[in-house]
Structure prediction request, 445 residues.
Amino acid sequence: MPLKLFIFLIIFLAVIFQVSVMPIFFPSGAVPDFIIILLILFTAEIGFARIWKWAIFLGFISDIIFFTLPGTSALSFLIIAYAADLAAKRFLAGQKVWKALILALIAGCSSIISDGVGIILAGSAGYFYKIGYEANFSWDILARSALYNFILAVIIYWPFKKIRDLIISRREIKI
Amino acid sequence: MIKKNSSLKIKIVAVLLILLAVIFLNLGGLFSPIRHVIFLAIQPFQKTFYIISRSVSQKASFFSSISEIRSENEKLIKENNFLAKEIAGLKDIRKENEVLREQLVLSPRKEFQMEAAFVIGQNPEKTGNWLLIDKGSASGIQEGMSVVVSDGILVGKISEVYYSSAKVILLSDPFMVVNVADLETGARGVARGDYGLGVVMELVEQTETINAGDSIITSGLGGEVPRGLFIGKAQEVKMSEDKLFQQASISPRVKYSKLDVVFVIKGIKN
Prediction:
């Protein structure tokens, strides 16, 4: 299967999973960001230089399907990918045992970045033309969201690693 | 290598500026046709994913609720005894009056022309509260139509329509406002979503009476939402911050995250 088609499918499936599966199992406002966790895992693997275009595309698709202000998720995903790349280069070098936990910690922090960017942009944009994008900000929800992201990242890491090792061993994908 | 990094940095800065322009120039309207196409393509997948997930969630919640059954059973027995005493104490005329008022004011379900729809998605973000349903313009759904569950309980309104799906903005969304009235006292106000935490009845004049436990229904004012749809029971009643009006928190009868099937009111039957 052509590589780009494969990535398109992953992106669409991830977004559908985020909107049609995750809210069922988690309370409103504290749904883990499955797509952000995937973005961080891919960024840690292949680096920001190769992932940034896909981060923007993923962000726009998310904005379209989640009915958020177009461009907001694209911008926050770009920032998250950049921050994840910096953090991965700094903390993951040579790590094997603690890699999953460090990535999970990055995922937990990413929810704070994502919410922060969304609130700042929406607040600014709302001022200019009252788009009415008022987020329900709460430290409790933010903390729970970060915790759920952390836990989900730990859970997702090992299947992701298995799939990555399988793909590398078959040398089918070279992003 | 240095040239490559500089080139990448320039590209990133350019992209950042473009993204900020898209956000602040509010070019969201450009994405509308793309949204239509995307929703048309992903709707079958959303429906499948959602139905499977709900099924798994229901089975999981059954096992987790076993431990709560005993305490809930004790609570229900106590409540039952209390209610039995209350019924015995009611006067016949007062009871008959309540039943007659309810029949006159609450709209029976068979009056409406309704379209059943499955819920296929929910808001995973922290902004706003909405659902996605699997019916759209192809089924005659239009913006502004009211959405209820089977007992005539209002859950929201259609805010965006696509060919085979539609977005329902829930009562708990901060931008959802409905004209309502107190079933028992006739007090009028507006119900506004409280950022996903519930619903608040506001702008109730100080001369009006509203009591905790009263049933709140739609008043039909404005013509957008039919009269007589149930919203919930009034909880705490207090003065608004500016001390000019009363307000009451409303406890909705349905849990929006557990909805599977909803009904869109398309019109009134002849």
Summary: Chain A touches chain B through 53 residues (CB under 8 Å).
